[in-house]
Each structure stands twice: as C-alpha cells, then as structure tokens.
Amino acid sequence: MKTDPPHILCVNPWIHDFAAFDFWAKPLGLLSMAAILRQNGVRVSYLDCMNRFHPKRTRPAKVQRDGRGPFDKTPIDLPGPMAAHLPGETKTFSRYGTPKEWIEADLETLAAGDRPDLVMVTSLMTYWASGVAETIAAVKEFLPGVPVVLGGIYASLCRDHAEEFSGADRVITGPGEPELAQLILEFTGFAMDRIPDPGDLDHWPFPALDLQDHLAYAPILTSRGCPFSCEYCASSFLEPKLRRRSPAHVFKEIRHWHDNFGVTNFPFYDDALLVNPKRYAFPLLKKIIDSDLDINFHTPNAIHIREVTPRSADLMFRAGFKAIRLGLETTDFSKNRHHDAKVRKDEFYGAVDSLKRAGFNREQLGAYLLCGLPGQDLDDVEASITLVKSLGILPVLAYYTPIPHTPMWPDAVSRARLDITAHPGLTNNSLFPCVCSQAELDRISQLKKMQK
Questions:
Q1: Is 62 exposed, middle or buried (0-12, 13-18, 19+ CB in 10 A)?
Q2: Rounded to the nearest 10 degrees, how much is the dihedral formed by the CA atoms of 437, 438, 440, 444?
Q3: CB atoms within 10 A of CB 345
Q4: Kind of pairing, strands 15-17 and 94-96?
Q5: pTM, whole model, 2 decimals?
Q6: 264-287 tens-digit pLDDT
C-alpha cells in the first residue's frame, strides 16, 4: 500500500454550446471531492477550462456587480452526430471557456513537472458531452498513461454514451464522494483515513473554491437532493435522498469565504432553500442579519413559492437577497392541468405580494415559466407571461431540455422533431427539440420579446 500522498488533478471541462454565460456556475461536486482529498493530505491541483480569470489574460475579465460575466468563446464545428441531424443549422456552435492554447500550456507544464497520478473530470449539462470529450482528449494527449475518471451529471444520466465516447478510463455515476476513497486506493494505492459520513453534511469540508484563480462569487449549497419529483427534472434520480446542513454550518461557510477571500456574492444552489423554514432558512437568515455583513444573495435555482410568506420575504430582504426567482412553471392553476402542480393561485399571488411589501422591486423578482415542453400549448405560455407581468414582476422563460431518467423523457422522445437519443447534444434547449413546427418556433421568438 502506498504511503506517500498522490497528486490528483481535478478538471472542469470546456462547454460546447450555441450560447453560454457564467450564471454563477461552478462544479461544486468536484470541488467538494477536492476538499476531501486535501483533508486527507492528498496533493490536489485544479485545471479549470472555464476560468474567466486565467493568469495569461492581458485584459481584465468582465465582471458584473453580482459576480457573473461572459466566457471567452471560439466557433467550432458541430460534432458529427449532431451535424447529421441538424442539416442547415445556422446557429454558431462554440467552445466556451479558457482559450485552448492556454489550457494546453497548463497541461504541458504539468507533464514536465509534477505529473498527476490520477485525473478526475466532472461533467454538468448532458448536452455538453462533446466539451467533456475534447477536454479528456487534451488531457490524454499531454498526460499519456495517467488514468482519467469521469463523474458528474452527464456521466450519471448518459452513462452508456459517456463510457463509449468520452474517452475516460472509468465512468462513475451518482454522487462521487462515497466512491472517492475506493477510487484513490484503486488507482494510486493510497488509503484515505478521513472519510466524511455521507449523512452528516456538517462534517464535510467546505468545497475547495480557493483552488480558483479568483472568487467572483461563492455558491452555497445548504442541502443535497430535493423533496419534489417534478416530471421534467432529474434531481431525484441524481440525489434520491434529501440531506441538509445546519444553519450554523452554512453560516460558518459564508463567513469563511467573505472574511478570508472578500466574497460578497453568494448564489444558493438549493432546490429546497425554504422548505421547513423554521428549522433551516429562518435561523440562517437571522444569523446573516445579525452579522450585519455587506453581502448579496441570489436564487438562480428558484425558491418554492408556497414557503414565501410575509415573514420569509422580510427576512430575505433584510439578509441581502438581490435576485429572487420563483419556481412557478405555469399560471394554469386548474386541477386538470397536464403537468405537476406545486402551487395554488392564491399562494403565488400571496408570495408576490409578500415580496413586494418586504421591499423587493420588479427588477429583483422573476418567475420561471416552462416553455418548449412536449405537446405544450403556447397560448398557455403567453397567458402566463401576461399574468406574471400584470403582477409587476419579470416573467423568465425556462426552455425545456429533455433529460434521460426523468418521467417526461419517454414523452419527449416520442414527440421530439429530432432523434434526441442519437446524441446528448440534440437535447440542447437552444434547439427546442420538442417544438415541432416552424410556426411554433416563430411564436416562441415572439414570446421571448414579451418577457421585457
């Protein structure tokens, strides 16, 4: 058994897409595993192909007040299987992230110096599969013979495709932390002795966000999993159990990134931030308010409307929440509606009223509305946009991506105008794969304009 700590390279791959922007996007799963490795004395390095602040940059990266900003991009050809199913496609397909020559130079430096014993690559959206494959190909070119393990969302939801086309030597599915010790032992011979209890998130180290060149924001995850099972979402497949951190541990992490790294913007990644608020959200928000920190919070993953009450709205406003997104989906509140109903009409109206009374303005409040679902009546989408605007908040269209292992997947496959089983890239919501006529596509273009 090896006693010297190994060197593990963690890699966040390039994005291949028709459009991409840094909407507070970080690979928390990979950085969580990096933190556990460091806790065990393992040497960890990080190659971030989405690094907006690479040291080779000669001009400052564009950074909005909330920490978000654009990625560099380079036009590239569509992958062969996508091109075959998209004849005449006019949208520009690009590699988003750090310029390729800079990443290759980083890999060359690693190859000439402290070569890693193992490379761990993450993956996010399923339709970014070709970006994962290009990244792994680059790693293998400069670090031949070093084993590559792929995990993350694409690997979990499209395992067969990942095993055949990603180029990885091993594909793991589901949360990677429980398998981490065995992977390190198998590939490096090093035995880790500090293994966090999967059920006790308060004893996990904070994700290794400090491996980044610059922290424009720090994502916060107060829980793993989701109590809901929406038919278009894979959360319950990826994280079958809801596990939560204590308010004290979450607040300690917020203080850590603010006090030690000057972070002022914190997006919550949670699917269940306001669920059971008396036990979790309220104590956390009170700690933030009492600390009198000058920091901002955002909810890009949406919050559950049913829990937005006068009290929760007031606490969020006083704690420094700047961008609130509500998980509305539709304003068809009828009992016979086609898709899941998580909220009643009175609950939605009450939530909006509570938020506005607390002090939030129109530009801070948005309601997600699903668009592009299989068989969806676009009249319903237009009606939803109109109603949301009438309440003085922003309608935000969320374009549907067909996702394997969700209840809606079979319906999407049967109704899609593209063969979305041929390549994960064909599920890209920019293509509106389940919108089956040019007239409907034109209608959606008009609906986009109605959001303003």
A1: exposed
A2: 140
A3: 12
A4: antiparallel
A5: 0.95
A6: 999 999 878 999 999 999 999 999
